[in-house]
Structure formats: C-alpha cells, structure tokens
Design goal:
235 residues; mainly alpha; hpI Integrase, Chain A; three-stranded antiparallel β-sheet; 44% helix; globular
Length: 235
C-alpha cells in the first residue's frame, strides 16, 4: 500500500509539473516594460530601480532570489552597493561591462560566492546603463542593493508582481509568467542566438544540462525538422 501511495504521489507530482506553465521573458518584453516604466524620460526612483533589477535578472541569468532581499538583511548574503563593480574601459574599443558578486545562491550551499560578468549592450535594454542610472539615484546607505524610495528592500514577490502588472498592461496572460521567467528567457534567447551549450551553462551557472529544459523551442523550428531530415543527403 505504501509503495502504491508513493507511485501515485510521483505521478501526481509529474503531472503537476507538466501543467505548470512558465513562459520566458524576452527582449521584446523588456522593451515593452521600458516603455511602460517611461525610463527614457523619468527619474522616478522606483521605476529606475525596478528596471535595473529586471535587466540584471535577464542579462545576468539570475534567480530573483539572488538579487532581492527576502529575509532580514545580511550583508554576507544579499547584494549590496559594493557587489557591483564597473571596471574602467581600456581605450575606445575596450569592452564595457560590470561584475556582480553573487554571495549566495541555490547551488552554493557553502556561500562561497560567485562573480558574474554582465556586458553592456549599447541598446535601450542595456543592463550596465540601467544599473549605473539606478545607482546614481540611490542614496549611499548600507543595506540591500535594490530598495524602494521608502527605503524598503525589493523582494522577489514584489518584483514578480511588478513584472506581471507590466505583462498584463502589455496584453499578455500574466499568469503564465513567474519569477523564473527571466532565467528561462535568458537561456532561450541565448539558444536562439546560437551560443554554444558550454557558454550557456557558464552564464547560468548550471552544473548539468538541466538548463535545456528551460529553453522554449519555437514551433517554427520544430515544424521544420521533418523537411530538414528529408533533405539531408544519405551517406
């Protein structure tokens, strides 16, 4: 009887995973968010803060829990102002980027930390510029990196809620998106850009090929496979 219960529980769990929908946040979504937040013509603190967090989540392949503060602030765990570093550019052709020190993550139980590199895009969705703009507005107070104008820390729940609000305003079914949609979107976009698998694993700090389950393959790609196979020369 116990064995049967365990089998039924596993079936229920696997079915639940199949039903759960988490669509990716893409560059298209980010551009819409930027328009709705009026980033180009406002210095509203909270808008700039939310925008910076969104771009960092996407381009940094981050879990929202890695950049937000969801418990009592701990400088050894949470991102702080000095977690972000903008190296000086070497010459006019040198790369522009920032480094972010992730102090704790789901796959880092011993809190060894990990430093990620996030490059500038020279586009409207540039994460480096977004962070620079936000930090220029943020008061030099000790505490989490991302805070509201009130001084209250940005939480994973709030960032997810704000994301869903913007999705709804853009005409999307917000219930199909979650906090992990940024990480899923980053992996999917990287695959579409034909980045090698080893680089995607490095960017997302995946230790296995589990990242592949995040990648959402377009129907156009799947539907074209038969023709590709049929047109492949025989050896």
């Amino acid at each position: 009887m116990l064995r049967l219960q365990l089998v039924l529980r596993e079936i229920k769990r696997s079915q639940g995973d199949q039903i759960r929908v988490r669509l990716p946040i893409t560059i298209h979504h980010l551009k819409l968010f930027r328009l709705l937040l009026a980033i180009s013509n406002t210095n509203n603190f909270d808008s700039q803060m939310i925008w910076a967090a969104m771009t960092l989540a996407f381009f940094g392949f981050l879990r929202l829990g890695e950049l937000t503060c969801n418990s009592k602030f701990n400088k050894d765990v949470h991102l702080t102002h000095d977690s972000i570093f903008f190296p000086p550019r070497i010459g006019t052709k040198g790369p522009q980027f920032m480094t972010v020190r992730i102090k704790e993550s789901k796959t880092d139980p011993f809190r060894l930390g990990h430093t990620i590199t996030v490059g500038a895009t020279n586009s409207e969705t540039c994460p480096v510029q977004a962070l620079k703009n936000y930090i220029s507005l943020r008061p030099p107070t000790i505490g989490p990196l991302f805070i509201h104008a009130s001084g209250k820390p940005l939480t994973k729940q709030v960032l997810t809620t704000e994301t869903r609000k913007l999705l709804a305003l853009s005409g999307f079914n917000a219930s199909n998106y979650a906090g992990h949609s940024y990480r899923i979107g980053a992996a999917t976009t990287a695959a579409e850009a034909k980045l090698p698998s080893w680089l995607i694993k490095t960017l997302g700090r995946w230790s296995s090929d589990c990242y592949e389950r995040y990648i959402k393959t377009p129907v156009s790609t799947l539907s074209g496979v038969s023709a590709m196979l049929a047109n492949t020369s025989k050896f």
